[in-house]
Amino acid sequence: xxxxxxxxxxxxxxxxxxxxxxxxxxxxxxxxxxxxxxxxxxxxxxxxxxxxxxxxxxxxxxxxxxxxxxxxxxxxxxxxxxxxxxxxxxxxxxxxxxxxxxxxxxxxxxxxxxxxxxxxxxxxxxxxxxxxxxxxxxxxxxxxxxxxxxxxxxxxxxxxxxxxxxxxxxxxxxxxxxxxxxxxxxxxxxxxxxxxxxxxxxxxxxxxxxxxxxxxxxxxxxxxxxxxxxxxxxxxxxxxxxxxxxxxxxxxxxxxxxxxxxxxxxxxxxxxxxxxxxxxxxxxxxxxxxxxxxxxxxxxxxxxxxxxxxxxxxxxxxxxxxxxxxxxxxxxxxxxxxxxxxxxxxxxxxxxxxxxxxxxxxxxxxxxxxxxxxxxxxxxxxxxxxxxxxxxxxxxxxxxxxxxxxxxxxxxxxxxxxxxxxxxxxxxxxxxxxxxxxxxxxxxxxxxxxxxxxxxxxxxxxxxxxxxxxxxxxxxxxxxxxxxxxxxxxxxxxxxxxxxxxxxxxxxxxxxxxxxxxxxxxxxxxxxxxxxxxxxxxxxxxxxxxxxxxxxxxxxxxxxxxxxxxxxxxxxxxxxxxxx
Length: 580
Fold this sequence. Notes:
alpha+beta; two-stranded antiparallel sheet
């Protein structure tokens, strides 16, 4: 035997001898009672029942309890574990006392009593944390392969599975430190928490990592009195809608956002979180400002002001689950789903994109109260002009009252056409004013109730795809020749003006005229908002009025038919029209 082995053997013999000299009874009943009492003192758990107890000294002193039922003293937490292993401290055994430095809960099933109506993790876990805070000291607690059932009024609110957690040993007033992993709503998550258990200023930290969330906070909790938590926060998610869904929040407006990252100094008070000096990245586009989340009168509220260099507004709008305007859709409007949370958000950016259009110096807003939805552009510059819009929807007993306002002033259409292919055949400077007001429970009712007005004015431009002046010259020489290739060329115009009134879901042109150097073009008729169809006639005349060519404009708004009324000017009776 080597000298080292001899020393170890001698030490072991001495240790066993010292233990044997103690007067404490190693009868299993007493060990079990002592172990239970020590576990309750060092963990805050009250043991209600056990099936079997085992005690062993070698290789290290330990007590193992099987099928253990336990609860916290205030009843906020209760459960059962397949096995509880308590690792004894060696030195206290020399004096006949039982003390633990670690308690393992193997495959525990834990029930946490949550306040009725609560829906947040903080409210669920606050009673359990308060019980830990009352302990004089706490052993290291290791939870492996556990499950946590969060219940309110006996009903399960949520379940945490695959819980593997280490709660570090601490003395009174020392912070609670835990780390581990869990699976919540099917998403595996790594967590680390440092939470102060006493009043006054103390360090607090939290980190969480999952496929849906990366969060890191290191700050302070101040007290006594109402606790205030403050410090830097970094949070990111590849998909905000999925993250909200993970927390049980179904938000139609939230679906507008994709990848989101926030870096901010936060301040957390009771039912209020402030994000100060916040940097918000939306799909890589940075916005700076301040945001506040609060709960008022049982309603969640978000408010804030953000500013940045660029923002793709069109991308946000395209992601929203907005139904297409269709009179055949008889589904009632669900305004409550869009106004379930209060929002007061103002965003300003140097440049923005909206459905391909490029805007600059943009100020937009979103204002939501229960039963009221409002959004629009407070200001925006576009292609040498200005743009303003407003959409307001208010819930009423008769349905949703909708008001739409839009204004474009001095917009260069030719410049806009480079970004909007649908304007490729147009040029000039234009302005549009639109005002609509209607009420209904469905699209059919709403479209049929619309009243309002539309005004259009444009000057010094061209319309591609037709040459009115050339058409008049051909028709004057030979009416039959006018029918050939008349959809070619361009028509310069000096002015375009159109005014229309809207009532009962029908748009009626009260005045519509385009003038050029060698022609005048007048349009009259109506458009049905419900079916989105046109029923209009037009007349192209020479400057002196001697030659007149009639047209029809009919069909769906997306693809109307614009044709010469050939029978009107090729028939003998029409010949009179040509020279009238």
